[in-house]
Write a structure and sequence with these properties.
11 helices; 17% strand; alpha/beta; binds acetoacetyl-coenzyme A; 4-stranded mixed beta sheet
Length: 257
């Protein structure tokens, strides 16, 4: 039985982790299926924006699967950790923006999946945390690396070592969430944001995400060089001619037809 649902409509691909009885916890089967769905979706020419959410009203993803991990050897844990990290890298390096619609618990691996997304919108009942140390573990799907970049080292040290869970308002305050909205408006708000993105140049969006991502790990001079090269590359494509001409002709640019 499939553990991931996918719905493709009007350029938006909505991926739902569908294991609500376990609060969408990601066992190795979920990780494998999710990875293949993300790969296919990134390659799908019809897709312009990807939304990730969790089934049910309680959870986005409550983490890696604790029951599966109880039986794992160190070698199996290494493979599980690497599989989760590969998945987060696929999400983060997607040339199509990935938005996390965080509809409940985003804990452990769930918070790490949300952090790999380019944008995180939370519903009022969402909560975030890296409680792994309470289990004698550490955040193994990129949490120790991405959390300090998103919220700063001091706050990341605190969240990871206390294992405390924070609500959506606090996540917004510290920059872990981009926005918070009422629970029943979450998906419609995220779809609206996706539609706004879809009106913009897909090549320009992909290049911008590439510059941001590469620049984060590079010294400023290298980052600026990556940026100016990507800026110049856009001039090889019709997309920028459509965008610039539409402005001059005082009309809406049409990038996707
Ligand atoms: N793994 C496996 N099953 C999980 C799970 C998880 N991460 N989270 C919840 N579940 C299961 C529960 O075991 C329960 O199933 P059963 O009824 O069969 O026992 C079901 O989901 C419902 O959960 P609760 O009854 O616990 O629901 P609650 O509302 O009382 O509590 C919760 C919700 C606070 C999220 C609690 O379930 C919880 O603390 N979950 C674990 C969160 C966590 O520690 N996540 C980190 C995992 S480690 C990790 O992710 C490592 C990594 O970085 C890769």
């Amino acid at each position: 039985m499939s553990l991931i649902k996918i719905n493709n409509e009007n350029g938006i691909s909505e991926i739902t982790i569908d294991r609500p009885e376990a609060l969408n916890a990601m066992n190795p089967e979920v990780v494998a299926e999710f990875t293949s769905v993300i790969q296919d979706t990134v390659e799908n020419k019809e897709t312009g924006v990807i939304i990730i959410t969790g089934a049910g009203d309680k959870a986005f993803i409550a983490g890696a699967d604790i029951k599966s991990m109880q039986k794992m050897s160190a070698e199996e844990a290494l493979a599980y950790g690497k599989a989760g990290q590969k998945l987060t890298m696929l999400i983060e390096s997607s040339p199509k923006p990935v938005i996390a619609a965080v509809n409940g618990f985003a804990l452990g691996g769930g918070c790490e999946i949300a952090m790999a997304c380019h944008i995180r919108i939370a519903s009022e009942n969402a909560s975030f945390g890296q409680p792994e140390v309470k289990l004698g573990l550490l955040p193994g799907w990129g949490g120790t690396q991405r959390l300090p970049k998103i919220i700063g080292v001091g706050r990341a040290n605190e969240l990871i070592t206390t294992g405390k869970i924070i609500n959506a308002e606090e996540a917004l305050r510290i920059g872990l969430a981009n926005g918070v909205c009422p629970h029943d408006e979450l998906l419609s708000n995220v779809r609206k944001m996706a539609s706004t993105i879809l009106r913009n140049g897909p090549r320009a969006i992909a290049s911008s995400l590439h510059c941001i991502q590469e620049g984060l790990a590079a010294p400023i001079k290298e980052g600026l060089e990556i940026e100016v090269q990507e800026f110049s590359k856009l001039f090889h494509h019709d997309e920028r001619m459509e965008g610039l001409t539409a402005f001059i002709e005082k009309r809406q640019a049409n990038f996707r037809d």
